[in-house]
Amino acid sequence: PYVIGKDCVDVNDRACMDVCPVDCIYVGDRKSYINAAECIDCGACEVECPVEAIFVDRKARGDEERTQFVEDQKNFFAIVLPGRDTPIGSPGGARKIGELGVDTPFITDYDA
Ligand code: F3S
Ligand code: F3S
Predict the structure, then answer these.
(1) Direct distance between the N- and C-terminal alpha carbons of the chain, in angstroms, rounded to an integer
(2) Is the entire prediction scored with pTM above 0.90?
């Protein structure tokens, strides 16, 4: 799957969302996150991001920082939102649930 990396933090441009055919890019507070279970690996988002924040996960191999973002992106979907009793999981579409307004602790504390 594809991963949104550090350059999205505090930019969160969302141009990627507009081109994703399966609407699997979810908007957090400081960055956005691709749902790996829903992503069909089309790669449309990668070329659309103005700050080139998106990469395919196999290009994280041997890169410690990118590997952290691969792991972190998984952690995002395990977040339980306030007032819910189940994790974000795979909602099946980002537009219908809107901006989630949260980040993982790693991103909340990330020094961009
Ligand atoms: Fe972020 Fe780039 Fe998308 S800045 S929200 S990955 S267009
Ligand atoms: Fe969507 Fe990008 Fe995957 S456009 S399907 S998140 S590769």
Answers:
(1) 24
(2) yes
User: From the CA of 22, how far away is ligand 1's center (Å)?
Assistant: 16
Over the stretch 16-53, which tens digit does the pLDDT of each residue have? 999 999 999 999 999 999 999 999 999 999 999 999 99
56 lines ligand 2 (CB under 6 A): no
Q: Which residues does ligand 1 sit against, CB inside 6 Å?
A: 4, 8, 11-16, 31-32, 49, 51, 53-54
Half-sphere exposure for 40 (CA within 13 Å, toward CB):
8
Domains of the chain, CATH where assigned: 2-99 (3.30.70.20)
Q: What is the pLDDT of residues 36-46, one digit of tens each?
A: 999 999 999 99
